[in-house]
Amino acid sequence: MKTWLYLTAEGLDAPCANWPCCVWSPTGERRRLPLHKAAGELNGRLVDVLLPMEMCSWLRSDPWPSRRQPRPQALAFAIEEQLSESLEALHIGIGPRDRQHRYPMMVTQRARFQALLTLLAEQGIDVRTVHVDADLLADGQALGVRWFGRWLLGGGLPARVSLSARALAALKPGLPEAIHWLDEERDCPGIDEWILKAGGRPIDLLQGAFRRRRSPLPWRGASAMVLGLLVLTWAFGEARLRFLESETWLLYARSEQRFRSLYPGQERIVDLAAQFQAMQSRRGQSQDTQVARLARLTEQVIGASNVEVQRIDFREGEGWKIQLTANSFVELEQLRERGQQNGLPVTLGSASKQNNRVQAILTLENS
């Protein structure tokens, strides 16, 4: 059973130990009290923190073409034009993909969120998850709920917002008619339990640099006994290892002598096994040369996409490196998948966005 700590919107202007909060008793009774007293009530229990929607913004990506989970950096760049601040100043929590193949994201100021977590830690509150109130509403139906004196819009709506009664009256004519409205003061006295157990898929903001660290292992107190056994095992293993090392060096010296007699031209030996395999396989090398592999990549992968090639380099041991310019990260992802479909081991790296174009380096690795 979750223990909720709700930091109400009343304390956003001056976050401190007196922040007005709400906790719920085991019977579901709502208790309003300042943060420092709530910390005493919680008594070190794991807490699921609930933030007001006024502290965050909710956005969605465009439909993502790949079924594979994209990197957080790619999703952040995908919504960069919708943000009013630079990505470095923001913290973005990513939710699961929806039915339209879009990824929902909850955005907040990084420094502000860090200060909030620091404040909770100073009060001795052990945070398990951090969610946002308007994001708790289940996705099945468009909902408008009056809770703690504000109206929360969410659920099946393509938005997560908090509005005052006056703001809602101004926006209501433009909202869909199918919204189901609930008012905690009039319609639904048990609305607290209904919201907290709505069964939605809210975004947990404890991601990336703010991910919760694992708790210490419960059996760490017995480590001293285990350490003693390990010392005895180590002493025996060390003696055995020294014997094996001496035998190994003797065998290696004999192998190196034999290799020099077979290939007198190989005066410098760096990796004996690799050099031996290379000399053995040199006669039977495949006719699929590096130039032929580049031609396949150009015809079957790059030629079928709308990207511009800026530069092509070949590095021994690394393969072909091609600097590309594309219109979007989605276009680069499609390029990488097309390469894998054609049996070419391609990877993308060093992706960056400049103006309206995306630059990246496509690597065709040695097979």
Structure description:
This protein is of the alpha+beta class. It folds into two domains: 4-210, Nucleotidyltransferase, domain 5 (2-Layer Sandwich), CATH 3.30.420.380; 290-364, General secretion pathway protein M, EpsM (Gyrase A, domain 2, 2-Layer Sandwich). Helix content is 32%, strand content 26%. The protein has helices spanning 35-42, 72-78, 110-122, 165-171, 191-196, 223-262, 272-281, 290-302, 329-341; strands spanning 4-7, 20-24, 30-34, 46-51, 57-60, 90-94, 104-109, 126-132, 142-147, 150-155, 161-163, 180-183, 308-315, 319-326, 346-354, 357-364. It has a five-stranded mixed sheet, covered by helices on one side. A hairpin with a 2-residue loop joins strand 9 (142-147) and strand 10. It starts with a strand and ends with a strand. The relative contact order is 0.09. Mean pLDDT is 85; it is low at 283-287.
Order of helices and strands: EEEHEEHEEHEEEEHEHHHHEEHEE
Structural class: alpha+beta
CATH class of the largest domain: Alpha Beta
The backbone outline, from C-alpha atoms, is flat
Number of helices: 9
Distance between the termini: 53 Å
Tally the beta strands.
Answer: 16
Q: What's the CATH architecture of the largest domain?
A: 2-Layer Sandwich
Q: What profile does the largest beta sheet have? A: 5 strands, mixed
User: Low-confidence parts lasting 5 or more residues at pLDDT below 50?
Assistant: 283-287
Mean pLDDT: 85
User: Might you state the CATH topology name of the largest domain?
Assistant: Nucleotidyltransferase, domain 5
Rounded Rg: 30 Å
What is the number of domains? Answer: 2
